[in-house]
Amino acid sequence: MLSKNKNLIVDKMCEGSVFESFTDPRYEIKIPLQKGQLNEFNTYIRNNSKVRLKKVYSNRKVNSIYLDDDDLSSYADNVAGISRRIKRRFRWYDNDLNSIVFENKIKKNKASIKQSERIINKGSRPPVNRKDVRGLLHKSISSKFFPNLEVNYQREYYELGFGIRMTIDTEMKFRKLHPIVQSKFTSSPVYAVVEFKYSVAQSAQAKSLLSGIPFRVFRHSKYVIGMDTVCR
Q: Quick one: which of 57, 76, 58, 75 has its CA closest to 66?
């Protein structure tokens, strides 16, 4: 169960006042790739003399359940590119469902922050319906939002230097949770997503490291891609 103070924070975020206290923002640059392009990218990044490529964490499976309201406001705001928006999700890693995290990913212009709260999941099951969400979250949140999409993928973790992080996501799969929970997952039309993450203060170093990458940067939301994939 969320602590009282955290509930107050989340409630404020739902009302929009969180944007007045937007702190520690970071940039997230994404490059969606198909299989052949990923091979080309791996060759490029390993041969880039400016990059000090270092694996910083073991590969793991990332699982997310995205929440939305009856108007699908989160989905609509992402599609429209609204400069100030929030995505709400549960997240857990590999098969560890005993302890999951509730996150609010807050976007302001081109930067974003995440506010997280670890939750003890006594039922050890993914929160795929409204009842599950009510059992895990404060009433002011659970009454407004329902689980809408489940996403999972394999993630690799690297550092390029200067604390600039890079992740590579593959094997992305989606399943619709509302109004009926689908039994099967559908593979993403995108083979891989490379993402660079760095603080605003690291912008100059990141620009130097990433200049010359022969691939285009795109706005890419797994929630939007997933919804477009399973709801067609």
A: 75
